[in-house]
Structures are given as structure tokens and as C-alpha cells.
Amino acid sequence: MSDPRRQIPRTDALLALPAVAEAGARTGTAPLRSLISAVQQEARDGLIEPAQVEAEVLRRLPTRPGSLTPVINATGIVVHTNIGRAPLSRIARRAIADAAGYVDVEMDLATGARSRRGAGAIGALLAVVPEAGGALVVNNGAAALVLATTALAAGREVIVSRGEMIEIGDGFRLPDLIASTGARLREVGTTNRTHLRDYADAVGPETGCILKVHPSNFRVDGFTSAVGVSELTGLGLPVVMDIGSGLLRSEPALPDEPDAASMLAQGATVVTASGDKLLGGPQAGIILGAAEAVERLRRHPLARALRVDKLTLAGIEATVAALEATPVRQSLRVTEAELRERTVALAEQTGYAVADVVAVSGRVGGGGAPEVPLPGWALALPESIAVTLRTGSPAVLARIESGRSLVDLRCVPPEQDGVVAAAIRAAAHNPDQ
Ligand SMILES: *Cc1c(COP(=O)(O)O)cnc(C)c1O
Question: How far is the CA of 38 from the centre of ligand 1 (A)?
Fold first, then answer.
């Protein structure tokens, strides 16, 4: 008797199957080779019969390139760092796809001469925030802050309130970030209270700039006081305001969240922000400010190391040109009544009761308006269904709270409600449930 392992189909024979070759055109051959070798190994280990190898490879063929799996966000958390922060608008997706090939990012096609990189994105930002004399797009919010403090205060002092010495996540702390640029932090005030005289006492010949940071991921309540940008400008030094969230103009749904236009109107020299939080665009750092200050940042050698690629420029320009079309904006503004209606329909389509539709509070999430509740509704399902939904196709991410899986449609585009319903029906019938 010959060794049955000899009957395991060879790699080149499997790669030559028409369906496999077709999948290869979508995904590249590397993931197919790993799939084939994994399945062959299962046959060698006796987990499947050699005769099953071909069918098993065909069953598990990848449909998408890359390893990142699209997720339907049913958590009700609008800006969720673990699933890529802001989802892009249809318009921004199109712009990024168009920029993927050769593109005139630094060329004037009419003259053939070199043109200013990022002019379109900068123009779009200035059109929305005419209070700014200049704008710049860099790699992320942290890069924007580093560039601003380096260009304005390297080798000198940055004055900052002790109430604003924040950690932005994953162990990264603002003080460390600024110290890494060669500027020295001069802390003033206390955790809960800082007054104008604290800043005034610290100002001296060594001061490079005053920094204000919006506490975007925590709140200090009670006996507190902080100094506003307009008061700080009276000290005669550049004021850098890190708003974090990226609201360009005030947002009615988030009345306490600072926005770039208002901070500039109050006299901030430079405002820094993230592109992929409340702005609703791709990862980027947005810098808006007085023309001269922004030019100084643009000319700084570090700016070259923090510059963004054509895809980011395309995504930011298209996002800013149609802010009303961003999924983030739509998720913030969707009404409670609409959410309730859609959630009741979801319950009916999935065989659950209207009693399982419960009032919940959505969240803005990482990087803006901490603790601001967004009143809404969710379908409450057994806790154990969350993992089945998460590992299904498509992957649906519910929020686990108090022993339940809450399916919140706030961040689900309405046209995908049916997909969510189908995923819940499939998960509820899953024998693992
Ligand atoms: C999020 C945030 C940052 C960091 O921005 P990234 O885009 O994540 O680099 C800095 N400051 C504040 C206030 C923030 O909220």
C-alpha cells in the first residue's frame, strides 16, 4: 500500500485550478500559497483526507487582497481607534482611488512645470476656515503638534498647564512628545486650576510659545479653572492650540467641542488637529494658522519627514470639500427617532421583540467630546452572539455591555441595515450559539 500522503495534490496543480488562478488575480499568489500549504499540512496531519484537499482550498479561497477585514461598526462609537477611526465618505474613497496611479500631485499640467504639493487640500481647508492665513497637512495629529512646537520653540520653552499634560493613548504622552523635539516644557498651574497669572509669571526670554491642549479623552469636573485662548494671546507670544478632534467649524451636536475656526478667531497663532477623528477623513495632521507661522512650519526641515503622500492629500481635500457627506457627521447627527425606527425594523426582521429594542447612549469615542452622550437605541441580544457576529462574513462589531450584545445602528449606513439583519439571523441559527 502506498503512503496516502502521496495522494495529496501538489502545489502547482492546485495553483493551476481555474478558480485558484482567478483568486490569485484578486489577491496575489502569496496568500494562495500559504493557504495551500496550510491545507496540505492538515492532510499530512490526518485532519482531512487527501481527496478533500482540493475542495478545502476552493472553499477557503480569499476574496479580498490583504489581511485587513472590513467591519460593520454596530458599536455606536463613532470614532473607534481599533477599527480605523473615521470611515471615509464615498467622495473621499473615489478621490483616493483616482490618486492611486500617476497623478499631478506636484505638477501643473498646463505648463509642465513643478507646482506646489498639496495645493488642492490646502485650498479646501482655507475655503472652510477663511480665518486661517495658511494651512499644512502632515502625517497625523501628533506630527502636527511636534512640528508646531519644534518650529516655534526648539531649544526654548513651551508653557503648558498641568491640567493639560495628557496621554493620548497607547502609552504616548504629550510631555514626552514635546521633549523629544528639543523644546523644554514649562508646566504652570495645578491639575484642576490654572490662572492667567500662572502663565504670565512663566513668560520670559526663554519662552518659545504657549501651548493649549484640549483634553479630548477625559474631563476634569468640579473646582476647576482654565485660561482661554483669547486671554493667552494678550501675553504677546505665539499660542498653539491642539484641538485634537479636527472640527473645522462648530458642530451643533457637540456644543462644547473646540473647533479650528473659533480658536483662530480668538487669536490662536496655530491650531493643530487630527484628520481622522471628527473631521472624518484619512489619518493626517491638520495645521491651520497665521500665514507667517504656517510658512515657518512648512519651511522647517522636520516638515519633510512628516509630509503626507498623494493618497492622504486626495482624501483630505475630498473630505473637506464635502464635510456634510462624511459618515462621521452623519453618525453624529442621526436622530433618535430615526434610530428607533430602524432598530425596531431590525428586531422585526430578525425575529426579536420590540421589547429587545433598548434606549442606549452612543459615544463619540477616541479623540473628541469625552463623555458626551449621544442618545439612541440598540437591539439587545445575548452576549455570546457578539463573537459569532464579529467572526462572520461580513464582520459585524456589536458593543458588549452589562452581559448583552448591543447592536447600535448609529454608525451603520442605512443601506446596510439589511446586511446587519442577515448577519444576526445567520448568527442566531449558528449551532455554536
Ligand atoms: C488624538 C489627539 C492627538 C494625537 O493625534 P493623532 O492624529 O492620533 O496623532 C493629539 N492631541 C489631542 C488633543 C488629541 O485628541
Answer: 41
